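Q: What does the assembly look like in three dimensions?
Context provided by user:
Components: two
Sequences:
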Amino acid sequence: MKKLLSLGAVSALALAAAPALAQDVTITNARVVIGDGSEPIEGGTVVVQGGKVVYAGPASGAPAGGTSVDAKGAYVTPGIFATVTSLGLSDVSAVSETEDSRAAATPFSASLDAATGINPVSQHILVHRAAGVTRAATALSPTGSIFSGQGAIIDLDGDASPVVQARAFQMVDLSENGARLAGGSRPAAHALLRASLREAQALTGKPGLPQTTEITKDDEVLLSRFDAEALVPVVTGKQKLYVKVERASDIRAALALKDEFAALDLVLVGASEGWLVAGEIAAAKVPVIANGLNDLPDTFEELGATQSNAGRLARAGVKVAINASSLQNPRRLQQAAGNLVALNRLPGAAGMSWGQAFAAISSVPADISGMGGKAGVLKPGALGDVVIWTEDPLEAGAVPREVFIGGIKQDLTNHQTRLRDRYRDLDESQRPEAYDW
Amino acid sequence: MFADTKRRARAGALATLASACALIAGATVADAKERDKKKGKDEAVAEAPAFAAIKPGDPVYPSTYKPYPGVASAIRGATVYDGRGKKIENGVVFMSGGKITAVGGPDTPIPADIAVFDGTGKFVTPGIIDIHSHLGDYPSPQVEAHSDGNEATSPTTPEVWAEHSVWPQDPGFSRALANGGITALQILPGSANLMGGRSVTLKNVPARTMQGMKFPGAPYSMKMACGENPKRVYGDRGRMPSTRMGNLAVNRETWLGAIDYANDPKAKRDIGKETLVGVLKGEILIQNHCYRADEMALVMDMAKEMGYKVTAFHHAVEAYKIADLLRENDVCSAIWADWYGFKMESYDGILENAAFLQREGACVVIHSDDANDIQRLNQEAAKAQAAGQRLGIEISDATVIGWITYNAAKAMGIGDMTGSLETGKMADVVLWNGDPLSVYSRPEKVWIDGALMFDALNPKTRPVSDFELGQPGEGDVK
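A: Here is the predicted structure of the complete assembly.
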């Protein structure tokens, strides 16, 4: 045991000393999961060169080159793409001074920029990387306003530049919670949203890009100029608007926003009762980041909640990802996906195929996040985010054996693995545990 | 302190009433004797006061649960985990009269005229048991009007009973049954208080009243809580406890008060102290919310100081650091598989907690504390097993099933009645449509006391609570 520990320590030091470089890797003898909804390919090969996927498929068509890794029949998949999360914005959620995903007392709203607060070596990032999450959409929660501010797409490689795309989306809360934040009523939230979008609209004719426009005091009604500016890309459709919403009627009201603001690029988040209006969501071509397994009437807006929600939405033709924020923590995404597969054997339930369920935690969320074809999928040109698993990755206990992000093999140690290694035995006959590191 | 004052005032009022009764009784002895002659000696109550509550120790709010009708049934050809570490391939489970009648291999004899279910490719376990639930006292919908789990008005409220908060119409019970195979569960008060009150153990059967669910013969437990919650709740109000040392001080003073009460034959009834004395006598178990290893060690010493026993530490994310101590003290750890980092005292949560405890020979229970996770205790157990396996700690599937069946039952004091498939025990049984430690498996049938209470193949066996009637999704698969 002591030997293992010192080896671990050495490799951690080595990684810290030299910046890791993407290496060319050929993973053979793999059960390859493309991540696009197709079923696994037995005996496949994945080739990563220059940090990108150049091949994933049957061994016969693979180009040669790079370090060879024998997967020994293991599942090899794209990294999990977690959406929506607070990864990088929090250490301990109940310790407020470590918590940057809530900002109830700020005077700002839509202009809040999650990218300015990401800590790339937060233990949550390191723990989730070891669980196979390679990229995430991360945002504040709406706390001080119906707007959470602008979310970022991050990678989990722990290097100095975690932000892949800043200001990737804006999020607004039109659920029960949003109604409370707006002053106590759904109409209050809708009025505030509409008024805010109109203020932003008024700025769209101004010269200059958003964030640089001149705004006179006369333009300010409800929002500070920073917040109004931040909504210009939303109202012009250049930035996605994630709408937190659960109840069927609230979903309809959210979809109807497009009648007034035609350019809005909407994404629904939560949508526990989405299955009741699945046809309308599909017709509007609005994707859903759906609560995975919620099946309780926790609130009056979730009376119709069922685990079959995601499956029914998918059957209606809606693009569905699983909402990481509906789970105990985002590393449960793969377990949630596995549960959706299990529903196929439950009479009356709507589940997903294995490939479809995996896509709901990889390519679909990547696509919704504006990284379609670039992440969450093993296709030529995609980022080299590759995970080799110990078992079927949708099984509850599955964890990665190896994780590559952008072609770089990741160190999987973190606070938890170090505690694990320290307490593998409780022998203090020679020295206290504190000397075991 | 507010609640203490209130309690004293109430005790005083009772004392006045009692002495008044005594006076009345004393003045009318002759009349009463005359009355008794007329009524007959069976009704001789001459010395009894005119007004009296049922005396302490006698059942109150008693269970009215009766097993529902079932037919003698057998499951044949399934893989059977008995809950006590045994696995039977191609096994037979035979139940009749609400009890397990026989469990064994393919040759186990079963009568010809009973219902037989083909278990080929399927698995049988004892009913799943959750030792830590707030269904009913924090029910869905989670509105303030339903928030009945924490009597957070005094740091010690041993006088409250969770059963007086349980709303039997909580839709969560049906989800736990249908998706989790839960047949029995312990409903605990919350952890705002050092002493949160009595728990209640329920059969997971729909009922109009709490009494209709109450597990007959199950002992009470008392909930205690260490650490951050009590000191935060009361510290924020500028009152004791505001520190961990304050937590211990208030606990110790309260135990000493209970010991005095127990030693005083003339003491006036005190409902809270009756609970504490029940603990001192070993009749009421202690379920102690406690995350940190160092605090668990302190609590075990406090229990020794005061003369009681901790049955289980709940949440116990750092149990792995003192697995040896927990084994020596014979205390179970009721834990999650993967919750960590949401509060300071959960910062050191690791996936290997259960596996390390098992390796040290300490008692492991996987619990939920959650209306969603109670639907997947089997998967939580599987995660904890897998974490051990990666380190070479091999824990058999049959042992892991014990974490969510027999071990839970034992730590709730009902291990001699349920929690395992053994002849004569309650026929609380789950037939799974696949390996219960796989994410792809679900309960297909659930029997409670031999009555088929859920059948995934029959939509009408899916209970619908009053709250759900006429609402979107009524009777849906959930």
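Follow-up: Residues 51 and 376 of chain B are 49 Å apart (CA to CA).
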